[in-house]
Structures are given as structure tokens and as C-alpha cells.
Amino acid sequence: MMQLIKDFFNRDKRRMKRKFQTACKHSGLMQIYKSGSKQYRVYPTIIEQDYSKEKIEIRFIIRNGMEVNSEKFILFCQQSFNCKVVLLKQINIKTFLLTILQRDLEKNIHYNYQDYEKSIKTKRVPVLVGYNHQRKLIVFDMKQSPHMLVSGTSGGGKSSLLRAIIMSMIQSAKDIDLYLSDFKMSELLLYKPIAKGVAVNNQQLQVLLSRICKELDNRSRLLEAYGVLHTDNLPAKVRPNVIVVVIDELLLLEGHKENLKYIERISAIGRALNCYLLLACQRFESKVISGFIKNNINLVVSFKTANEISSRLNGISGAEQLSVKGRCLISVNGSVEEVQVPFISANQVKKLLKDYITQQIEQPQPVQENPYNQLTLTERPTTEENRLENILEGNEW
Ligand SMILES: Nc1ncnc2c1ncn2[C@@H]1O[C@H](COP(=O)(O)OP(=O)(O)OP(=O)(O)O)[C@@H](O)[C@H]1O
Ligand SMILES: [Mg+2]
User: Fold this and answer.
1) Residue ranges of domains in the chain
2) Could you identify the atom of ligand 1 that is nearest to the CA of residue 341?
3) What is the CATH number of domain 113-355?
4) pLDDT in tens, 38-58
5) Does 126 contact ligand 1 (Cβ within 6 A)?
6) N or C: which end of the chain has fewer CB within 10 A?
């Protein structure tokens, strides 16, 4: 009996190896040796092979002189294993991990904060994305991976992801001030009652972003005055809230140089000053998303794209193959994962916000150690130097 089971698994392993070598052969990941009239094909060496219902993992080492064309190799693995999601990670110069995800993700996951609370509470600036193939909840901390860019064709689920991220941030009750921009005046405006600022056109956005940039200048001076490197390290009485700037339909900013400059600036200096960008657009247009902004963004999410070229432009190969609403690929520090985003409907947002606002009114609010945080950017004193002097002298202002 034991022998039968062993044979069964070995047969599966052999089958996987054959599929792997077929993909290597077609993508040119092999070497040919001649011995007399005979030719031998040499493939990368498999050093570990794991096989489950959910995924296949193959760890392999390439031989000297071999070169991996990852795009071609992934494409032929997709064909050979007949699976859509193939991920390739380079472990070191010669070692690679190939992951083939066999089971499809769940569709239509409904938003339920209680399912994410434990994970979100541990993050300073939580960004909820969804569930991966191992049913693991993916939540990032923007403090560690600042700024996020969401892309994909119309109807993929970009705005819905922004809604879920914002709702989970609100429900986590962190000291986060939200600034929203929605030129399409769609469902993001549902959050207007709790946002510190909202813009629906370039002029309004310019006012908003210029105030945020002024606030960042003040924060920089505070860091300098207190000799610390991050606003979280400032004493509580002067520590400012986290700022999250959410801009949906980023491409509508095209041609507005001032606003694009402000965004570049925030992307460059926001990290230490606890100010983060959450941007969404259909595709990466270099006229709007400069290489400079791209380089400053750590989290990239792509919903379905129109074609392979768009996927490559958006920085995540394979996104054109996504077919389910709310399904996306995420790329963090070089590795890519497929994730299903929990869906929150407009009605659910309205209901949760109503409950949230009622709760805020009924419950006495904790006293803010830094009263400055209670003011909107417009209410803050214009003579910032005076304010800084007062803070530094320990006076009330
Ligand atoms: N996570 C999800 N789960 C299930 N369905 C979803 C999900 N996200 C979006 N959808 C469905 O797709 C529709 C379009 O989503 P959404 O408006 O977020 O797309 P979008 O990418 O912002 O499109 P556009 O570029 O046109 O603004 C939603 O109305 C909803 O029916
Ligand atoms: Mg949208």
C-alpha cells in the first residue's frame, strides 16, 4: 500500500517535471550538448518540488550560461501547466522559485470589518487589499510601504478598492486625516462627511494640495526643531495626524502642472512626515505619472488591463488575463500576488458611516493631546512661524 502511494506521488512529480521542462524548452531556458551524432538537452536543476491542490512550487537553479527571460518563461509555464497564475521569484543569482496557483480565488467577498480588525489594528496606516490564494488576508502598512497606485481598465474595481481601504481606515479609528479628490463625483464623495477636505476639480485640488504641502513644510521644520527623523517620534503634544490623500481618476489631472508638482513633492517627502498618496487611474500615462512619482511608490495594484502592453506599462505582467471583478495583482518590492478585493456597496458605506457618525456624537471623544489636529488646514494659523515658536516655547497657541 505504502509503495502504491509513493509511486502515485512520484508519478505526479515526474509529470510536473515534464511540464516544467516543456516550458523551459519553449522559452529557450536550456542548453544543448552534442556527443557524437547525438544531441542532449540540459535543463535547470530542480532542487525542491512541492505539490498541493492549491499550488505547485518548484525551486530551481540555472546552469552557468543560462539566462531567464521571465516573461517568455511565465507564458510557456501558463500553457504547459494550463494555469493562469504563474509567479516567478528570483531568490539569488542562480536560484528561482516558480509558483503555479491551481485553485481559483473566491469571487464576491463581502466587506466585513470584523474579519480584518485583528490585522488592521497592528498597522500604523493600514491598507486593506483582500485575500490571496492561500486565503491569507493581505493588509499593508503604508508607513512601511509608502504610497499606492491602483490601475486597470474601466469597471475592474479600482474605485471599489479605494472605498474598502478608506472604510477600513475609518473603522480602525486611527489618527488619520483624509483628503479626497474625485473629479467624476462618484461614490468616493460618500465619504465627504468625514473627510477633512474634498476636491472635485483641478482648481479645488490645487487649493487642497497647496495647503497640504504647506503643512508638510511645517512638519519638516518641527522635525528639525526636535531633532527627530519621523513625525511619529515627535512628542505627543505636537505630533500631527497621519494625512492620506486619495485621488481617483488621476489622469484627469493631465496638463495641470501645479497639481502634478504637488503630487511629486508629496511622493518624495511624505514618508517621514506621515503623508501618503493613494492614487487610481486606468493606465500609467507618463504625462501624469512621471518616472519620479513611479519610483517613490511602493505599492502597485493592477486590475484587469486592456492588453499585455498596458500590463507591462502598469508594471505588472499578466494583469490582462484577469477576468473576475474585484480581482487584482499586487506588486510589492518585486513580488506579485493575485488577490480578491472585498466588495463594499454604496449602501453599505452609507449605513456604516451613519453608524460611525452617530457613535462619534454619542461617545465623548478622547482629548487630543495636540489640539492642532482638531483644526482643518484652512483653520490653521497662517503665520506658521509664530505657531512653531509657540510650540517650541511650550506656550499654548
Ligand atoms: N471587489 C469586488 N467584488 C465584486 N464586484 C466588484 C468588486 N469591485 C467592483 N465590482 C463590480 O464592478 C463594478 C465597477 O467597479 P468600480 O466602479 O470600482 O470600477 P473602476 O475600476 O473604478 O471603473 P472606472 O474606471 O470606470 O471608474 C462595481 O459597480 C461592482 O459591481
Ligand atoms: Mg472608478
Assistant:
1) 12-24+41-101, 113-355
2) 1
3) 3.40.50.300
4) 899 999 999 999 887 778 889
5) no
6) N
